[in-house]
Structure formats: structure tokens, C-alpha cells
Amino acid sequence: MSALDFFALTGAALVGLGSYGLIAIRHLLRQIIAFNLIGSGLFLFFGAAAVRGGDSDPVPQALIITGIVVALSASALAVGLVVAQAEASGHAELPDGDKASDGPDDAENAT
Amino acid sequence: MADMATYVLTGLGLMFFLAGTVGLIRFPDTFSRLHALTKADNLGLGLTALGIAFQAQSWREIALLVLIWALALLSSGTVAQLVARTALNETDPE
Amino acid sequence: MILFDATLCALIIAVALAIVAGRDSFRAIVFFIVYGLFVSVAWVRLDAVNVALAEAAIGAGLTAVLFLAGIGRLRRAHVQADESVPLHLPAASACTGLTAALGWAWFALPLPDRPGPQLAQAMPQAGVENAVTAVLLNFRAWDTLLESVVLLAALIGVWTLTRDGNWSAPVGLPQHVRPGGVLSGFGRVLPPVGFLVGVYLVYAGTSRPGGAFQGGTVLAAVGLVAAMAGMVRPPRITATGWRVALIIGPLVFLLAGVAGEMLGSGFLTLPVAIAGNAILAIEIALTVSIAVTLAFLVLGPPESDDSGGSAS
């Protein structure tokens, strides 16, 4: 196992961890953090692939930099949406199936 | 000769970082933890930067290392003050 | 050195576990900052210093500030949330399968062609020596142009979340800073130094690791520090100056592309003679836009003080 394999497998593990976080965590802000984990895990995987074959390839690195910036933009929009939803409903989580009946009451209690 | 200086200084710096981390984990409250963190970590960073400076190829690199250390010192000092003040306000409302 | 890489990867996974399984949001964000710095070191080990700079500045730094601001606004709205994460077995097994599939894909990937010949032949015509900058701003300039527009689109999306009456209110909440205190002193000392560092990163990006995105992020951070320390009045998004600063990057980029078309070498293809200076000019405009856009993205939609409540 070379060092590159370590980085690629770490990237794969991060994608798995981030996906688990996205599904299992209920708090919306932490779901966005888990989403960022998926993104950076994929970048690590891609970046390790860029070094295969000897020299480091600048084209994937440029694409990864673009990806990091776009991930930040998406996270910023997501955080804005989460805060707006929380201010309107009073919860930082989306209602589950069994809590769905509480929905209209929260809207009436909103500021 | 320069390599030996790098090893010694970087090793010393790492020991200071270790001391700071032990303090962070073992001390009982926020203020003593801040004390351990800022003092030990800043000194550790300074020693590590000094050790790396022996490997520098030009004066420009040494100047950059000094700048990095100064910026880290400035920001960690400020942050420690702010954290301490917030902790003080929370534990001592009057 | 492989021991170093193995330890680094183990640490990255351990910190990621702490993020996912942690007890509350603040803890998750602190671990996220640590995670970002470790990934930055991993990028250096992968011989991608430009990416390491971008990850440290944007991934670890600015994203964490964004999340901290988000938590602050949630707390101000008195939002309570149950933060326990019970173990979700179906998701755990599905995600383990996902990881295994990606790991299998890694070992099954065919070895790529060397990037050598075509890129090495094209580099002398690029105008800059940093290969990543050349790819970003010359060979794959289309991607970067669209990326700068995506940043702008995200900002407009954030602005649409403003309540109707608040459109001309200042962005970000008013800061309570003690005059003569530590934060105001910091806000006086850091911005000039940070400004120089940001400008240097942009200029050095032509021959050394650096670039418009990394420098722009440093400048955005400097602006945020100045705003947090009360040195700068909170901006209003209705101001024409800020709007011009936001669009000047994509606009100059687009004009350069059209100029390339009119000069006969094709849309977004820079003629070799002026490539170096053109890239620098585009980078300067792009840096201004990136810095202002990122700062506004973190500051959020304009809100007035009465919709929040207590001081932070």
C-alpha cells in the first residue's frame, strides 16, 4: 500500500462518513457540515488520482480549487436557508413523519 | 551542523507543544487552559520556526517565517484575551 | 514518510468521526476547523500546494466562520434543537458499502496517460509559470468564469432571503466592541498586514503557489476582521460601490474573453504576446470580486436589529 492508496482510501472513508452524517443527523447545520465532509473526501480521492503516474497533474488541482470555492458558495446559501427556516419555524430540524402534524402550529407561533 | 540545529530546535518546539496539549487536557478550568495554550504553544511555534529557519535557502524565507510567527502570536494573544473575557463574564455576572 | 502519511490519514478519519458523532454544533465546527487544517497538510503531501492554500483559507477558515455565524444567528432566534445522533443502522451499512465501492474503484482505475506532453508543450504559451494558475486562468478559463458567476449567484440567493422591510438595512449585526480593547487593537493592526499578504498571494500566484482565490479569501477575511472590530461600518447592499465591486471580476473576465474573440484567437483564448499581463489584469479584478463576494456571503442577508433580540 503506497501513500497514495492511503489518501484515496481516506477520501473514500470520508465520503462514507459524510453521507452517514447527512442521513442520520437531524440538526440542519450539522447536515451541512457533513455535506462538506463528502465534498472534501471526494477532492482527496480525486487529488490522489492526480498524482498517479508520477508527476502531479495541474488540471485536477485546478478543478479541485474550483470545487472548494463552489462548495463554499453552496454552504453559504444552505446556511442562509437553514437560518431562515429556523427563524420561521423555531426548530433547527425538519419535521419527521411523526412530527409532521406539528407543522401548521409552528407556523402560527412564528414571530 | 544546520541539520543538527534543526533537529534540536524542532524537537524542543514539539516538546513545548506537547506540554501545552497536556495542559489543555488536564487543567481544570478555562483560564488555566488558556494559560497553558498561549504560553506553551507560542514558544513551541517560535522554536519550530527557528529550527526550520536553519533550512532556509534565502533571507526572504527567514523573513516569511518570522512574519508567520509574529502573526500567529498576535492572533492567538487576541483570541486568548477574548475567550478569557467571555469566560469571565459568564462565570462572574457582576 | 509513509508512516507520516498513514498517521495523518488516521487523524483525518478520527477527527471526521468526532464531527459526525459529536454532541453539539459548536463542537462539530471546532473539529471541522481542525479537520480542514489536517486536510491542508494532506494536500501538501499530495504535492498540491495551491490546493493546500485554498483548503486552509476557504475550506477550514471561511467555511468555519460561515458556520459560526450561522450558529450565532440560530441562537439569537432562540432555536432549540435536540442534538443527539442515534445510530442509524441502515444508513451505516449503506455508507459502508459506498466507501467500499469507492475503495474498489480506486484499485480498479486504469493508470492515466502522463499529463506531460500536451501540457508541457502548452506551458510556454501560457504567460505564467505556475501551472495551476495557467490552467485556471488560461487553458480552462471557461470553468473559472462560470465559477465566479456561481459565487455571485449564491450571493444573490442569500440576499433573496431578506425580509421585505430590511432590504436597505446594513448587512451583519452591529458589533459591540470596547473602544481601546483588544479586539479594536487587533482590528487596527491586522488589516494592513493582511492586505499585504493577500495582495502578495495574488501577485506571487503567477510563478509560485498562490492565486486569485487564495488571495481574495485572505482579503475577505481581513474585511471581516475589520467589520467585527468595528473599524468598518456595516455595508448596505443597495450601495452602488459594493455592487460594482461584486460584478467587476466576472465582467472583466467576460470582456477579456470577448476581446480574445475580436483579436482573432477565439473566445477566452489569450494571445501569447499579452497572455501574462492579461492574466494578471483578470486576476486583479477577480480578486476584488472574490473578496467582496465571500465577505458578503459570510455576513448574510441584511437584517435589522429588532428581528433578533439579545446581543451576541
Please, could you describe this protein's structure?
The complex is a heterotrimer of chains A (111), B (94) and C (312). By secondary structure, chain A is an all-alpha fold. Chain A is built from four helices and no strands. In chain A, 58% of the residues are buried. Mean pLDDT of chain A is 85; it is low at 99-111. Chain B contains three helices and no strands. In chain B, helix 1 (2-26) runs antiparallel to helix 2 and helix 2 runs antiparallel to helix 3 (59-91). Chain B is elongated. Chain C folds into two domains: 1-79; 126-312, no CATH class. Chain C is built from eleven helices and no strands. In chain C, helix 3 runs parallel beside helix 11 and helix 8 (182-204) packs antiparallel against helix 9 (212-228). Chain C is globular, with a radius of gyration of 22 Å. The chains are: A mainly alpha (111), B mainly alpha (94), C mainly alpha (312). At the A-C interface, helix 1, helix 2 and helix 3 of A face helix 1, helix 2, helix 3, helix 4 and helix 6 of C.
Largest interface pair: A-C, 78 and 96 residues
Number of strands of chain B: 0
How many structural domains can be distinguished in the coordinates of chain C? 2
Question: Distance N terminus to C terminus of chain B?
Answer: 58 Å
Total beta strand runs of chain C: 0
The ordered H/E elements of chain B are HHH
- Kindly name the structural category of chain C: mainly alpha
Q: What is the residue-mean pLDDT of chain C, rounded to a whole number?
A: 87
Number of DSSP helical runs of chain B: 3
What does the oligomeric state look like here?
A: heterotrimer
Report the helical percentage of chain B.
Answer: over 70%
Overall number of domains of chain B: 1
**Gyration radius of chain C, to the nearest Å?**
22 Å
Net shape of chain B: elongated
Instruction: Give the biggest sheet of chain B.
Output: none
User: Strand percentage of chain B, roughly?
Assistant: under 5%
Give a brief rundown of this model.
The complex is a heterotrimer of chains A (111), B (94) and C (312). Chain A has 111 residues and is mostly helical.
